[in-house]
Amino acid sequence: MLITKEVEFNYDNQIFFKFQNIDLKSNENLLIIGNSGVGKTTLMHLLAGLLKSNSGSIKLFDQELSQLSSHQLDRFRKNNIGIVFQRSHFVNSLTVKENLQLAQYIANKKDNNRIESILKKLNIFDKSNKKTNQLSQGEKQRASIALAIVNSPKLILADEPTSSLDDTNCSKVIKLLKKQATDFGAQLIVITHDSRLKEHFKKSIEL
Amino acid sequence: MNIFKLSIKNIFNKPLSSFISLSLLILGIGIISLLLQLNTLIKDQMDNNLRGIDMVVGAKGSPLQLILSSVYHIDSPTGNISLEDAENISKNRMVGSSIKILYGDNHKGFRIVGTEKKFIELYKGVIKEGKEWNSPYEVLVGSKVYEKLKINLGDNLVSSHGLRETGQSHDEGTFKVVGLLEPSNSVIDQLIITSPESVWDIHDTHNHKNDDEHDHENEHAHDDREITAMLIKFKSPMNIIQFPRQINENTNLQAAVPSYEISRLFKLFGFGIETLSYLAYLIIIVSGFSLFINLFNSMRERKYEMALIRTLGASRFQLSTMIIFESLVLTISGFVLGLLFSRFGVMFVSSLMEESINYNLNSFKILNEEYWLLGLSILIGIISSLIPAVQVYKMNISKILADA
After folding, report:
1. What stretches in chain B show pLDDT beneath 50?
2. Domain spanning A2-206 has what CATH number?
3. Is the whole model's pTM more than 0.90, yes or no?
4. ipTM of model
5. Nearest CB to B1; choose among A41, A79, A105
C-alpha cells in the first residue's frame, strides 16, 4: 500500500532530512514516532502530497507521488487521504455540517446521510448547526476527525492527535481514530512524539 | 455548499469590515448615479419645455432670466414690452408663429398666465374636464395646480398681485375655473391659463382704483397695452442666427434663444457636477482600497482555513476564485444598492423641487452611463481582489500547517 525508498527532503538547503524506508501492507496501521525536529511533520506532508520530496520515491496506492503535478496531487488527496491535524482547523464562517458539506463539494460528492451518520457515530450530531468556534476542545477534535473521514478516504493521516491530552483522553482518542478507520475501511497512519501510543499499534517505526 | 455560497458566508462572517467597504462603494456609486440621473432628468425636462420655441422676445435684461421666466416660469420677468412693438415683430416675414405671454398675478403662488390658445397647443395640453375660456376671467387650470389646491370645475379663484404668494390681493379679481388640463409633464401643469384680456382688464381696474396720482386720460390716449414676452417659432431654422441679433441691435426689445441660453446654463452647472463626480470617483477608489485591505487581512486571518480547504483537495484556482467572488459579491451589491440610493435621492430632490419651483422629475430608467458604473464596480472588485487572490494561489500550505 505504502512503499517509500530513500526519501530525502531539505528546506532551502539548510535543514536536511533523510527518512528511513517504509513498507506498509494493506489492512495495516502504522505509528511513526520521533522527537521534535526529526521531520515528523515534513514526512506527513510528503505522504499527503503537500510537499514534494527532493529525491527518493513514495508509492502510495500504487501511485508514485513525485510523478503527479500539483493539480493532480490535489485530486489524489481528495480521493484518497483524510488528514487529522494536531490543531483542529475549520472554515470558521461555516457550521460543523457546512464544513463537512464543503469537504464533500470539493470532492464532487453530496451525501447528507453520510454526514449525519458520521456525526452521530462521533457523538456530535447535536452540534451540526453550531459554528466550529462554539465547540469544546474535545468536540473540535471529533469534528476534525469527521472532516478527515467524510469523503471515505483509504488512508487517514493523523498528526500528533494526542499530544495535548491526558492519559484517559489520549487512550479514548486513539481508540476512536482506530475504530473510525476500521469502520470506514481506511488505514491509519499516526505521526507523533507521544510514546503512550506505542501499545495501540502493532507496527511502528522510529524516526 | 459550493465556493460561491462559501464566499457569501465569509462576507457575513465579518459584517463590520464588509459593511465599511460596501457603504463607501454605495456612497460613491450613489452620488455619481444621482448626478447622472438629475442631469439627464433636468435636461429632458428643459428640452421638453423648449419644443417649438426658437426665440423669446421680451424687455431688455438678462437673456437667461427672460428664458427662465417666460419658458420655464421659474424666475421673475425682465419687464414688460408694448403690445405694438411685439406685434411688429410677429408680422416679420421670418416669423412662423408667435404666442404672447402676460404675467401679473398669482393664485396661492401659482402663476396666472394670460396668453393665446395656441399656448396650450404648443405644450400639447389636453382638456380633461370642461372647456377652453371664451370670455375674460375664465381660466384653465394645470394638473399640478388643481391637484395641490384641490380646485374643481366652476370654482372661483382670487388672484393676488405679483408672482409670489405674498402679493396684495385683487378683491375684485376673481377667476372662474372653466377647464382642467390633463397632466402633460410640461410647464402648463403648474400654470393657471387665461386670455390676455383678463390680465389687461384686471390691471386696468387695479390702476384706476389705487393709483390716483396717475393721469388716467393720458394712459388711455393710445394703446398702452403691454405684454411680458412673446414666444416665437421661425419659418426656417436658419433665421435663428440673424433675427435675434437684428432685434437686439435695432429695437429696445431683447431677443433670446432658449437652446443657447440653456446650454450656457448647463455649462455653469456642469462645473459643479464635474467637481462632485470627481469626488465620488475618489470615494469609489477609496472603497476599492478598503476592500483590498479587508480581503488582505481576512486572508491572513484565514490562512489556516485556506490551507485546510487545500488539504481537502481544493485546487489553488478554486481558492483564488473564492477570494475574487467575495470581492465581486460586495462590489456588485454595492452597485445595486448605490443605484437604489440614487433613486431615493432623485425622489427626494424631486420632492424638494416640486415644493420650490413646481417641477416633477420622475423616471427610474437605467441610464447607459450607469451600465458603465456596473463595469466600474466589477473592475474595482477584480482589481482589489487580485493581489489577495494571487497570494492565495501561491500559498505554501505545508509551511502554514507546520507553523500551526
Report:
1. 209-221, 357-358
2. 3.40.50.300
3. no
4. 0.89
5. A105
